[in-house]
Design a protein that fits this description.
single chain; about 350 residues; ten-stranded antiparallel β-sheet; six-stranded antiparallel β-sheet; 1 helix; globular; disordered N terminus
Length: about 350
């Protein structure tokens, strides 16, 4: 099977900043694979991404990553090939631009955390339960090696098996254009301070020492050392004088967390970690972690969704907005709190869960 060489050498997604590669330096020996190499053949429903200049129907080797779903629609382990090894991966996190999940990021990691694959879905068409991806980027990260980055196309769902009631559905094109600035949000209430589009950090070393110190002092039990994560975080300009930093803390089997902090612009020796206020009826200390955060930068709106279990049929859903606070700093204000306690196997959008609290203007 053919061996691929990385066409780009600039993006670093974790494990420190990568240096430009020279011919003698080692690289990730990612292999394309074909249908004939997939044990049991393609499952009826699956996730698959192939190199954008290949066609899995006509090319013997085309696939970059493949993940089957079982007969109940539960995702299994994904697989990629590096050198002579087939490496099993588990989905660790998602970051969707616009719910329901269509565009955004999916992170897959090996059990030993030696291999990470980040899939960025940029353009897609949704027909019924099938998502056809016409533009994506697949990035493979391994420690001490430059990342492998490839343009890709793919599918997520059940190709050729649409249910009768959805088979005639009109394809709905979606694109990530404008997503960095916030994009559509299920929340339509009062908004907060507008932010600039996010700038993705290229290495965890870009997180200011003052922010790291603040997290270590006030949230040592909530935030694991971010150097161990493949995604280093993002920053947003609040105005000419302040920056909002998003620092990823934890990536689990089906959800992740981030902590947000404010610094001066440019950063100096001062930082303030932002806490998440509880609804009035909920006692206890405020939390620092935002679960599965979605940031709608243009509106200064942040959505936190904590799933009770991987099936996604229960949990809590919170909407915050960023506002000015006394003392030339900022704070999160809770605007909406929803909770579904009963994990009953019935899935619905978290924004439609029972409303427990809603703030006024």
């Amino acid at each position: 099977m053919p061996s691929l060489k990385s066409p780009f050498l600039a993006l670093a997604l974790g494990f420190g900043a990568f240096q430009p590669v020279v011919a003698q330096e080692p690289s990730i020996d990612l292999k394309l694979f074909g249908k004939h190499e997939i044990e049991g053949g393609l499952s009826t429903c699956h996730l698959a991404f192939w190199q954008s200049n290949k066609d899995p129907e006509t090319d013997k080797y085309a696939y970059l990553i493949y993940m089957p779903y079982d007969k109940d629609g539960v995702q299994m382990q994904a697989v990629i090939e590096i050198g002579k090894d087939k490496i099993a991966l588990n989905e660790g996190a998602r970051g969707d631009f616009d719910p329901p999940p269509r565009l955004g990021y999916r992170l897959y990691s090996s059990a030993d955390h030696a291999t990470h694959v980040l899939v960025r879905i940029e353009e897609a068409v949704v027909t019924g339960s099938l998502q056809t991806v016409s533009k994506a980027t697949v990035t493979v990260v391994r420690e001490d090696l430059p990342p492998f980055i490839a343009g890709a196309k793919g599918v997520i769902g059940c190709p050729g098996s649409s249910a009768p009631e959805t088979a005639q559905a009109v394809p709905e094109p979606v694109s990530d254009e404008g997503a960095a600035a916030g994009g559509p949000s299920p929340y339509t209430g009062p908004v907060g301070l507008p932010l600039t589009p996010p700038v993705t950090l290229t290495a965890t070393s870009e997180v200011p020492p003052a922010v790291r110190s603040e997290i270590a002092t006030y949230a040592p039990d909530e935030c694991s050392e971010p150097d161990t994560l493949a995604y280093p975080g993002q920053r947003y300009a609040v105005n000419d004088n302040f920056i909002l930093w998003e620092v990823p803390c934890f990536l689990g089997a089906y959800q992740g967390t981030s902590i947000f902090a404010i610094t001066q612009n440019p950063p100096a020796d001062w930082a303030t970690m932002l806490s998440l206020p509880n609804p009035p009826a909920l006692e206890g200390e405020n939390n620092a972690q935002m679960m599965n955060p979605e940031v709608f930068a243009e509106k200064g709106v942040f959505i936190s969704t904590s799933l009770g279990r991987g099936q996604g049929d229960c949990g809590t859903y919170q909407v915050f907005r960023l506002m000015d606070a006394p003392g030339e700093t900022f704070e999160f204000q809770l605007m909406e709190y929803r909770e579904k306690v009963n994990c009953d196997g019935v899935q619905s959008e978290p924004s439609e869960w029972p409303l427990q609290f809603q703030a006024g203007e």
